[in-house]
Amino acid sequence: MKNLLLITLLCLLGGCSGEQSAKQGTGGKNQSGKPKIALIMKSLANEFFSTMADGAEQYQAENAEQFDLVVNGIKDERDLGRQVSLVEEMIAANVDAIVIAPADSKALVPVLRRAKKTGIVVVNIDNRLDSDVLKAEEVAIPFVGPDNKAGAKKVGAYLAGKLKSGDEVCILEGIRTSFNGQQRFAGFQEAMKEANIKIGDHQSAEWEMSKANTIAASMLSEHPNTKAILAANDSMALGAVAAVKAAGKSGDVLVVGFDNISAVQQAIQEGKILATADQHGDQLAVFGIQNALKLLEDKDAVVEDVETPVDLITQETLAK
Length: 320
Hints:
Blueprint: H1 2-14, H2 18-23, E1 36-41, H3 47-62, E2 68-73, H4 80-92, E3 97-100, H5 109-117, E4 121-125, H6 131-136, E5 143-145, H7 148-160, E6 168-173, H8 179-194, E7 198-204, H9 209-222, E8 226-231, H10 234-246, E9 254-256, H11 262-269, E10 276-278, H12 281-297, E11 306-307, E12 311-313, H13 315-319
Parallel strand pairs: 1-2, 1-3, 3-4, 4-5, 5-11, 6-7, 6-8, 8-9
Antiparallel strand pairs: 10-12
């Protein structure tokens, strides 16, 4: 009898709904009355993604009455398991929407399908999810981001204008299972083919500066006629610049990148890097958040991709 009275008292004080208790502290619409959006990115050690986070947080601060924001990222862009765990944590936290830059185009699809099945709006940014896997999982997730192939082709074409027909170049690829890495490599290839530039070697440095430095040094040694190195992101471009300098070839081997991080802007101004592509990282997550808010307003809306800008950055454009 005493136990029954105690249980009754606890129910009166705290509420008896197991569902309510589970949602306390989750931060969905239960506390603030506003939707909660989770931004899940790749490595925050990469300046591009820290810039993306800063842009998203600034946008939330300017629109605090519209939504709450949780920002997460993994330490290593290859740590797929941790990024899957982050999605699972956000599902458990009962967020209203997930905006994600997936570390892998295929591996994240199943857990994102599970998120959608719980009613969470999911928006894909930066690195497009694999269309075949999405189809196999029977899930539609909109992609908000740039045409990476077109952006890389702009950079490659600009580089080709500084070279001669028949010259030899090398390419540093990103993670090969990432759609954006595949598309940037394809854009570089297409630009080189159209200019009749030979690709002497191409290897994946997995987006990492130190790995790019080691691979670029090997490329320069094995291919002494290399006239340029095309890097699929700016971190790898910086690694390539260091390798070029160590080989005593500064000024003789051109380097291009992709992302327009601040360190590369400085390197372009100093003539160490020829060009990069700006996919407006400070706004990319914002575009995804805006799309998520629209879908939250109307969950029956047609899921559509949104192409965002990508621009060529050179000494000339930085001088404007």
